[in-house]
Specification:
The protein is mainly beta. It is built from two helices and twelve strands. It is globular and about 65 Å long.
Length: about 170
């Protein structure tokens, strides 16, 4: 049965799933950091602490806002070993369909060889997934030192930038 979502129905009726479906339909099924605020800029504060700046992102249609910077703790590395950790934005849908999002450090496996990224949750909430991770940064550790963080996200440019690029090309 068809339902008017963005009209007045005389009762609460718009759902998070409907809003996410609209976002995914307009923005696409990928995950994006939006081109506003600090764009989740990362700052290495110490040997085991990073600060993630402000930003807005859309992951699988869900909009997540970070209005204040957040400190995250990276577990110390091991002498003589390497490890890749990932900083992700984790979507979770719990009991009674309560949804949440938070930044999480996913710890990798130490190795003396070439480190690999840890596994993350990849089943989209659009497909019924109850936990989904959007990778933001790879944090390489060499022994006990944090290396240079590697961004793993795409920044979605605003429509005004897209329009400007089209109008300059003669359209």
């Amino acid at each position: 049965m068809a339902e008017l979502v963005t009209g007045h129905a005389g009762k609460a009726h718009a759902t998070a799933e409907q809003a996410a479906g609209l976002n995914a339909g307009i923005l696409g099924l990928d995950d994006y950091v939006l081109d506003v605020h600090d764009k989740f800029k990362i700052t290495v504060v110490s040997a085991n602490k990073v600060t993630i700046g402000t930003g807005e992102l859309v992951m699988q249609g869900r909009h997540v806002s970070q209005g204040t910077p957040e400190d995250l703790i990276v577990t110390n590395g091991s002498q003589g070993q390497k490890r890749n950790d990932l900083i992700v934005c984790r979507y979770a849908k719990g009991s009674q369909n309560i949804e949440s999002a938070k930044l999480v450090v996913v710890r990798g496996t130490p190795t003396t060889g070439t480190p690999t990224d840890p596994a993350v949750n990849t089943t989209s909430p659009l497909d019924g997934g109850t936990t989904y991770d959007m990778p933001l940064y790879r944090i390489p550790l060499n022994s006990i030192a944090i290396g240079t963080p590697v961004p793993l996200f795409n920044v979605l440019k605003p429509m005004s930038d897209v329009w400007d690029s089209l109008s300059r090309s003669g359209y």
